[in-house]
Write a structure and sequence with these properties.
It is a single chain. This protein is of the alpha/beta class and 268 residues long. It is built from 7 helices and 15 strands. The strands form 5 sheets. It has a 3-stranded mixed β-sheet with strand order 2-1-15, with helices on one face. A 3-stranded mixed β-sheet has the order 3-4-5. Strands 6-7-8 form a 3-stranded mixed β-sheet, sandwiched between helices. Strand 10, helix 4 (189-198) and strand 11 (203-204) form a beta-alpha-beta unit. It starts with 8 loop residues before the first strand and ends with a strand.
Length: 268
């Protein structure tokens, strides 16, 4: 297959205040040690990786008391210059929503405040002309109709069934406009059938790949930035014609995040 890269504009948030002090997903253990300095170094390497690939990286100021603000993908969904704000399920993250909305408004974007719970690109992923929208744990199914109305793209609902893969972007990665990688067992039987129909040449991840959040990856259509621990997925992507760049964000994984969680695409 032939794959083509395109330069991307990303928004990221330095993990200045990163910590694991509460538990809102199965990856988080407040009793386990974490290393903020290591998280910052790993994040800096991820940021530099994007810059080296020719992408633009903009930054939002991290706010004290919001240890998960580093996971910028949850801050909004931006398609065709339209911004759908977010409404978090958990009170611990609620104050991130206005901070991200303010960032976009300050730069001239019109932000639509959501009426239903949605957690941004954690559960809403653009794949070509359509939006793949996850539900089951965080984002409310009712938000999918709202997403279609605001972003004006067809929305396809995908039902998540494994609590370990609580956001769509932990179970599926959009590789380019026509293809994805995903873990079938993270989805309901009906959603698996939809994915097979939409993406007959998809790269299928193993349970081992998913267990290191290998699918929480970022692709520019040619190069996939993914956790270096996802060795089977790396080989499968290369066999499918993609270039891969492995990064170590294992400290951030202690809060349930990987490269994609740290990366919000700004499509203007």
């Amino acid at each position: 297959m032939t794959t083509t890269a395109s330069p991307r504009r990303y928004l990221m948030c330095r993990p200045t205040h990163f910590a694991v002090t509460y538990r809102i997903n199965p990856w988080m253990d407040p009793t386990a040690p974490y290393d903020n300095a290591l998280a910052v170094r790993q994040w800096e390497t991820l940021r530099q990786t994007y810059l080296d690939l020719g992408h633009t990286v903009e930054l939002i100021e991290p706010l004290p008391g919001l240890p998960d603000m580093v996971f910028a993908a949850n801050g909004a969904t931006v398609v065709d210059g339209r911004v759908l704000g977010v409404q978090f399920r958990d009170a611990e993250r609620a104050d991130e929503a206005p901070a991200y909305a303010a960032w976009f408004r300050e730069r001239g974007f019109e932000v639509t405040e959501p009426k239903h719970t949605n957690e941004g690109e954690g559960d809403i992923l653009l794949a070509g002309e359509v939006l793949l929208a996850g539900t089951g744990f965080r984002t409310a199914h009712a938000s999918h109709a709202e997403t279609q109305e605001v972003l004006r793209r067809p929305v396809i609902t995908l039902q998540l069934v494994d609590p370990a893969y609580y956001h769509l972007d932990t179970a599926l990665c959009v590789l380019d406009d026509t293809n994805v990688a995903y873990l079938p067992s993270a989805f309901s039987p009906g959603s698996q059938a939809v994915l097979r129909r939409l993406f007959p040449h998809a790269v299928i991840a193993t349970a081992e790949d998913a267990a290191v959040l290998g699918l929480n990856a970022v692709s520019d259509g040619r190069t996939v930035v993914l956790p270096e621990q996802a060795t089977h997925l790396t080989a499968a992507l290369q066999a499918a014609g993609y270039r891969t760049v492995g990064v170590d964000v294992s400290e951030l994984r202690k809060a349930g995040g990987g490269p994609k969680c740290c990366t919000l695409e700004v499509r203007s």
